[in-house]
Amino acid sequence: AQKITQTQPGMFVQEKEAVTLDCTYDTSDPSYGLFWYKQPSSGEMIFLIYQGSYDQQNATEGRYSLNFQKARKSANLVISASQLGDSAMYFCAMREYGTYKYIFGTGTRLKVLA
Amino acid sequence: DAGVTQSPTHLIKTRGQHVTLRCSPISGHKSVSWYQQVLGQGPQFIFQYYEKEERGRGNFPDRFSARQFPNYSSELNVNALLLGDSALYLCASSAGLGDNEQFFGPGTRLTVL
Asked: Terminal CA-to-CA distance of chain A, rounded, Å?
């Protein structure tokens, strides 16, 4: 069954340090996409990064990188040089291309400390 | 360019009532998806529409329905409201059905009393 697991309800990181947010997934569809979204306290979901199941290289977008380990079914988000504005909820999500269904994890609340 | 817009921003209903939520996608986007986000949880996928046809459906009862209009805007309808329907309802648009990047609107906060 399609499933996303985020085991870290909350994380703290010191400003300017790197942080890794964990995400594991389960699917039987060979074609899928993995996503990370940021949700600040304002409530709007902001797309951060995407990784396709057939992509050979890990995705990067500025300070965000996705550590994709297909055999382990993990898609961890790495944020480098954390900033105070990175404090938010972070959601890992997956889309199966056979059904076009999206599924989101329960989220990790990140707090960046000055 | 305007982003995804949703209306109303907030809504209060009582059990058993009906509600209609509206979403306007980014200009040029043909796909709209709807999500329900209960407080403290991740969004739950409800529907995806593309070119006015339903292309994906999550595990929601038949009380939930949606449609997409020729201008690609969309409505989400919920009948016979339950207390558990209280949530933030998010709309997201993308250019095409297979596009990976979705742009979310600010959401409609529904409270059912």
From this structure: 41
